[in-house]
Amino acid sequence: MTHLKLENNQYWAKYVYTYYFTTTTILTVGYGDITPKNPAEVIIVVLVEIFGIFYVIYRNRYFWLCGELNRALYIISKKKSLSYR
Question: Nearest CA to 6 among 20, 24, 23?
Answer without folding.
Answer: 20
